[in-house]
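Hi,

I'm pasting everything inline rather than attaching a file, because the server keeps stripping attachments. The sequence lines come first, and each chain or strand is labelled.
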Amino acid sequence: MNVVVDLNRCQGYAQCAFLAPEVFMLHGEESLLYHPVVPDGQLERVRRAAAACPVQAILVGEEAGAGAR
Amino acid sequence: MRDEPCDGRIVIVGASLAGLRAAEQLRKEGFSGSLTLIGDEPQPPYDRPPLSKQVLLGMVSAGQTGLPQRGDLDAQWRLGVRAVGVDPIEKRVLLADGAEVPFDRLLIATGTRARPWPNPAEAALDGVFTLRTSDEARRLAERLDAGPRRVLVIGAGFTGSEIASACRERGLAVTVAERGPAPLVGALGGTLGALAAKLQRAHGVDLRCGVTVTALEGNGRLTGAQFSDGTRIDADVAVVALGAVRNTEWLAESGLAAGPRGVTCDAGCRAFNMYGIVTDDVFAAGDVARFPHPLFEYQLLSLEHWGNAVAQAEVAAHNMVNPGPRRIPHLSVPAFWSSQFGLNIKSVGVPTFSDQVVIAQGSLKDARLVAVYGYRGRVTAAVSVNQAKSLEYYERLIETAAPFPPAPGAADRIESPAPVPSDVPDPKMLSHGPTVALTGHLPDRRLTVVHPAH
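And the predicted assembly:
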């Protein structure tokens, strides 16, 4: 599974960084960095982070066009 | 066709963010016909913002920024093949491998590519890079891993500044050469440009403004560069960050209003033809599109913004499967972000569409602030530095054309309540393109009417 964050919406609440720290991390005071490919075993945490995001900026889904490779 | 907008053949040329989001939206709106995505890169759609951040920092490899997809697209993907033309009469997209793909409606979402170094022999030196695609990011990250002695970044727009930031974070020596008076000045004007210059130097960047690179030196491999002020440096990596070129050449024979500034379309994403007549079956979205925006005096805007690609693609897709009266305009307020030198910079509106700027919250000294931009007495943009939560408020001021300077808010103290000139430079004077190109007149220039002598 892959994840993308709409950083226009993101306001640095950092809920995701608390819920799934291996995938989402703050860089400096309020810049969010994330791993676009969700590691094995982190999917449930990432789903919870996406649900908890106050501005609903996190999209989780199958990698686009994966079957087209 | 008109009676059955949810059927037929839709072809999307450009399999990146805008193309993907348009495809998703088409299915979401009930399009049940055949859907084809054509992309010149072999990979499926991937996200670009991480390329100059996570990937250069070594957190993520370049092949790992694939975009997630909402739901099943049931699409045919033709990846790794370039579209080379459109036959507007027979309604076919022509591909470089000789194939032809027929369509009933076409979406053009071919985006931009990195502007190459103008001297091809110098551009071919080993060690000279651009950064726009996943492949380019992979090669640059590998070279940074190898520990070059010095990296030269040519152009201090957002991409160049992010590259310089990532290099400094890795402990690499960096020289930045910028033709304008400061980094980011083309997008944000003079006040924040001066802040960016101070920050870069505080982080150990050898920043040189007001100079151009006159030659890249080397014999097979890059060894150094010469500057217009007569100085030179040794460098084994150079990254050319001189803005982007819109991918419109393939449309030269299409009869569409397509050129170096993009594909001109209306607010509903319908492309104009070369006579200024709107088409009804060809649409454009994302970095390649150029459209009139009422908040900015209907000047044609080209936006190289992630959020614009998403929003415009969704509007285009909606309008491709809905009859005229149900069509919607793409009027969202432009917005983008950047992360560099430990700071989160976010922007709403169009900062270059301004004549004055005021620090409305925070201070330059603390590098935590909101700068508000105005044009002839109304708010047209706001940029936050480590103060993102405030931006939504200013977005509403922009949408409602609120008076500039804005009334003091309840937030923190104001360093300097007096507006100063926004010092938005003429884009012709910059070595990199601003991320928003206003392709009408420059708003800080007054027109002079010249009466001919009798």
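Residues 115-242 of chain B form a domain with the FAD/NAD(P)-binding domain fold (CATH 3.50.50.60).

If the labels don't parse on your end, tell me and I'll reformat.
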